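We modelled each protein-ligand pair independently. The example shown here corresponds to the fe (ii) ion entry; the chain sequence is given first, followed by the ligand as SMILES.
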Amino acid sequence: MADRLRLAIIGDLHIAVSREEADARLEIDPGRKLHSLSVELAEATVQAVNAAEDIDAAVILGDMTRDSELFNHEIALQIVRKLNVPCSIVAGNHDMLRRRPEHSRYPGVEILDRNDFCDFYRGHGLPGATTRYVVPLPGDHTLIVMDSNLSLDELRHEGFEDGSQDDGFVLADQLAWLEQVLEHCRDSGHVPIVAIHHSIMDHSPAEEPNHILSRIFRYWQVHEAGRLRELLQRYGVRLVLSGHIHAQSVNVQDGIVNLVTSAAVSYPHAWRLLHIEGGICSVESQLLGSLPSVRNLQYASREWMNEGMGGMIREKVSGVPLLAPLAGRLTEMVERSGWWPRFSDGTLGGFRVDPALVPQAGGINGMAIRQVVNVLDDYGRWKSERPDPNTLRIRLRD
Ligand SMILES: [Fe+2]
Ligand SMILES: [Fe+2]
């Protein structure tokens, strides 16, 4: 059919090669990012996309490296250039200069900021000069690539703290640019598909403003996402692709599907294939099964995530006076329930903590435990009300 398009979506690569003395610093994100396998994972993802049939184009959803180090970008570029199809790169929060504590920074390495990033990937994922741009795709589709990041200078200029660097922003000038692009799409009869690193709506109950964890999880989606959605809705945009969360997720709001694809570097190492025909888009989710060095990748990585996130939870919980004495037992509960991997691979719908795993305690400790269990269960309830991306049929054109 004339409007046919097959688009591959690749999540955050976070290339982080080993540099002898700096190896210890690489492992600061236990469970969330398999930095030590990042090159193999990116290579395997590119190979899988190249092996799929009739792909027209690919989009990489940002966070190319650990912290925008030139030596990591050089490896990322070599891998990107192996793609057999034209590729578009979305800028992520790790694709520009970042504020890091001294102990977790590579000493004396060159870091790319936004302009260097544009120059570096010019002609190999970026058109050059800008990280927001438009790509015409087969079947009268237009990919609109946005940049939801602020550099350190821009943060300061806008009155935000350096600590907000993981947050997403779409400021007035980008909204004005987007409106012009959408007008052009409407006038030329092109179907717009938007790609943006941060999500544009909730992907967990903890992002709702009154949730006890909202301050932790608000960095997942762009600030004032409602303003962006209002504009997208006004121009009939139905599909927005995001990365950043490192999880398979989908939500629908204001008639817009926000499809989040997991990072290549994180369990479950997924990429997605959009098949669009007759104005309808369907989504196939593909998981990497093995790597040259890890035969049973899904099993090994799931275990690694469970263990790594468990360690992180233990550390966080130990800092909360009420929960500190329960840290070990709470960590064991979360680990044994497999909550994190299920959140990441998109199978958390219907989750409830097995009562046999809940530590027994009375008084104030008992109340604290119940609150933790409620938060975990609430995710299961929330996720069960969201569609399954693999059975979604997204109508892109009326
Ligand atoms: Fe990321
Ligand atoms: Fe990110």
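DSSP finds twelve helices and twelve strands in the chain.
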